[in-house]
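Chain X:
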Amino acid sequence: MRIIAVDFGDMRTGIAVCDSLETLATPDSVIHEKQRDKVAGNVINKAKELSAGMIVIGLPVNMDGSEGERAKKCRAFADSLRSRTDIPITLWDERGSTITAIRYMNETDTRGKKRKQVVDAAAASIILQNFLDYRRNKKQTSDGISK
């Protein structure tokens, strides 16, 4: 199944997608929009365009496990999506995804405008890859044989 991930932000929202075998997450695009309802519409359109069977929304949980204002906004965004589509919506702990994306940008010497254009999609890709890895590991038994 193809799955998309969303790194929801106030100014930019990153989108990533995986292959149909749920092996590899790839950055897809960035939505440059501030209004939550418009972002939700764009995400649903992207999910339909990519034939996604699930949407994963990054949930910014604090390092101590608590949820702050940003997490509340992401939960509200997920609720907005749920009210507009039958595609299953999953919230996924995104702790450290943006920091990891920035580290990748530094390692590849991606700077300036190009960096701003790709960091959100890269963060969404990290969120999705973590989700895919979890799903894959969850399907394996303790002896390493897939169910």
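Chain Y:
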Amino acid sequence: MKKGSSIIVTMLVLSGLLLTDAAFAGRVGKRQVRQQKRIYQGIASDQLSAKEVRRLQREQRRIQRSKRKARSDGELTAKERLRLERQQNRASRHIYRAKHN
């Protein structure tokens, strides 16, 4: 039980970081927040194991880093946005599969 509660606390902290970043990110950032909520719902409903949560969170962090790197020059180009959306599509499939296995 302690392990599960520590995962939830970690997720809440990460979501706070995502929410503040999403306010400036537009469509890509809002989708990150929605995907994070889907992961939390999977935790709350016990659809996701701790291992699955770690893997999904790691993927979300990679997307966040990619987004920050793409926006580092002050602009998110169409090519960068397309790459981020593809990463998010892949992550969305992974979330779905993990919740429904």
